[in-house]
Structure prediction request, 377 residues.
Amino acid sequence: MKREQKKDQNSRRELSAEERMYMASQWRLMARRFFRHKIAVSALAVLGIFYILAIFCPFFAPYGKNQRLKGYIHAPPHKVHFVDESGEFHLRPFVYPHKQELNEETLSRNYTPDKSEKHFLKFFVEGKPYTMLGIIKSRTHFIGTEKGKFLLFGADEMGRDLFSRILFGARVSLTIGLVGVFLALVLGTIMGGISGYYGGKPDMLIQRVIEFIMSIPAIPFWMALSAALPPTWSVIMVYFAITVILSLRRWCGIARVVRGKFLQLREEDFVVAAKAAGASESRIMFVHMVPSFLSWIIVRATIMIPGMIIAETGLSFLGLGIRPPAVSWGALLKSAQNVQNVLMYPWILIPGIFVVIAVLAYNFVGDGLRDAADPYQ
Prediction:
């Protein structure tokens, strides 16, 4: 009897779990399936770390984005040590200061570690004052040394800490993708919805405009619009202008897919019922029809963001994107145009590693969302 009762209880639990699954909302099913995708969840955690570092970059960066360190032009990265030359182990990590020597034959700067002294790393050190989020004023930085300098990724041609500039550049490179994709989604959804819902002449006009825009090569199109920006514009104006430029082409593909969705849905029963109930056309389009394929829009947005990051990086690399004193990952890679610089100072390519990691992370998250969008497969 006891065994039969246990079997009945287990079967009821399994049945209730199945019932909960089929009675759950679409968003809950998507979330459940997404969090089972280990790679996508790990990628989401990486992106979360990136955005935290970008938001609070003045605190995490040892130095300011334009702060020059005297005597550290093109200085190599510091190596972090726990064991000194005598073989003694230290609980606190330390770095050896750079000793600069001028090569009289090539007139180049050579840096060698000065092992006569050790600079221990310390958390929450006092440094250059900054204002975080435009509100919080502080002098505390997450990591640094009590004396000397600490260059995790080396310095650039002006003696500025590359690690600090990468953190500040993340603000532009990571947010321009979000803003650009949002604009592309809004424009693409509106234009595609009008085209698919009304048909006729509006459909004909919008589709011809889309075909014209998509027939223009992407890179020359972006380069021409970026080069047309007035040089007197402020950093913020240039930022939003670059965002709009990157969105001008991306909305076309979204508009075509949304048009197909509207053509498919406009004869459905819930749309006919909404018309019979006297709902306005804008309410039918954006309250009833768009939410029915909102999961596709979210997946599409996640997949589009890496393309926006790469596009901004390419424009800034060519000198047509973000302008100094603003910093982005693409602007930091601009010094890598010279092959000789790359051979002599290979650490200037480190911003490219962050671009690759961010793009891969977004792609993995997009794959996880795409699989989760169909929870019954």
